[in-house]
């Protein structure tokens, strides 16, 4: 298995990045490739997971080991494949997701594309109590409150993405501004849309 790739980040696409390692380009599928944009044409280390099935061989890239571990746990849940796991990672930070699982927040979990009530309950059943033990985080009361706020921001961003698509913006355009929207930590969907439109106008 390939644990990580270290080389020059040569390309950032809608769903992938390419890392040049001594003349060999490794294409990595990422939750949000644009999160790596600032390292373009520079040396970078990206944690990877090699996904192997009868008809599939793919490399997935992650910002850190926690994201990689969460991805591996998510694809072990019945009803969630790599595409669904990436959709979750693209919209939420790891502590926020873990906190939602620990408090059995069905409403938050079903806000992700492709996650219905049945899958949300399966996530909770399979992962509750297991993620905190393995990831380099702990969820105490203060962190629960912080994570709850982060979850509100995530829900607003997910809703805003759908609104922006309805307005005709492409996935590429929307993904490119998600890191900036997450940094703003806005809980109101209308405000997220307003700021998103302002960012898109600058592109």
Automatic annotation (TrEMBL):
Pfam families listed in its UniProt record: HHH_5 (PF14520), RuvA_C (PF07499), RuvA_N (PF01330)
Helix-hairpin-helix DNA-binding motif class domain ranges (all copies): 72-91, 107-126
Family: Belongs to the RuvA family.
Main location as per UniProt: cytoplasm
GO biological process annotation, one example: DNA repair
Alphabetical UniProt keywords: Cytoplasm, DNA damage, DNA recombination, DNA repair, DNA-binding
Gene Ontology terms for molecular function: ATP binding; four-way junction DNA binding; four-way junction helicase activity
Source organism, top-level taxon: Bacteria
Cell location: Cytoplasm
Domain remark text: Has three domains with a flexible linker between the domains II and III and assumes an 'L' shape. Domain III is highly mobile and contacts RuvB.
Gene Ontology CC terms, in alphabetical order: cytoplasm; Holliday junction helicase complex; Holliday junction resolvase complex
Species of the source: Oceanobacillus chungangensis
Chain intervals for the UniProt region annotation (Domain III): 152-203
Name of the molecule in the record: Holliday junction branch migration complex subunit RuvA
Role description: The RuvA-RuvB-RuvC complex processes Holliday junction (HJ) DNA during genetic recombination and DNA repair, while the RuvA-RuvB complex plays an important role in the rescue of blocked DNA replication forks via replication fork reversal (RFR). RuvA specifically binds to HJ cruciform DNA, conferring on it an open structure. The RuvB hexamer acts as an ATP-dependent pump, pulling dsDNA into and through the RuvAB complex. HJ branch migration allows RuvC to scan DNA until it finds its consensus sequence, where it cleaves and resolves the cruciform DNA.
Subunit structure, as described in the record: Homotetramer. Forms an RuvA(8)-RuvB(12)-Holliday junction (HJ) complex. HJ DNA is sandwiched between 2 RuvA tetramers; dsDNA enters through RuvA and exits via RuvB. An RuvB hexamer assembles on each DNA strand where it exits the tetramer. Each RuvB hexamer is contacted by two RuvA subunits (via domain III) on 2 adjacent RuvB subunits; this complex drives branch migration. In the full resolvosome a probable DNA-RuvA(4)-RuvB(12)-RuvC(2) complex forms which resolves the HJ.
């Amino acid at each position: 298995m390939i644990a990580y790739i270290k080389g020059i980040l040569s390309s950032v696409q809608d769903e992938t990045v390419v890392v040049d390692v001594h003349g060999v380009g490794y294409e990595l599928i990422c939750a949000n490739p644009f999160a790596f944009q600032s390292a373009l044409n520079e040396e970078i280390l990206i944690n990877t997971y090699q996904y192997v099935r009868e008809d599939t061989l793919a490399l997935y890239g992650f910002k850190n080991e926690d994201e990689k571990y969460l991805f591996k746990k998510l694809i072990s849940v019945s009803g969630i494949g790599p595409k669904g796991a990436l959709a979750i990672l693209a919209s939420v930070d790891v502590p926020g997701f873990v906190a939602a699982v620990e408090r059995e927040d069905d409403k938050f979990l079903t806000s992700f594309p492709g996650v219905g009530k049945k899958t949300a309950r399966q996530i909770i059943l399979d992962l509750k109590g297991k993620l905190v033990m393995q990831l380099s985080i702990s969820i105490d009361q203060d962190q629960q409150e912080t994570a709850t706020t982060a979850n509100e921001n995530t829900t607003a961003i997910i809703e805003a993405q759908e609104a922006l698509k309805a307005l005709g913006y492409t996935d590429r355009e929307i993904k490119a501004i998600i890191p900036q929207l997450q940094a703003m930590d806005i809980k109101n969907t209308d405000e997220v849309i307003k700021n998103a439109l302002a960012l898109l106008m600058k592109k």
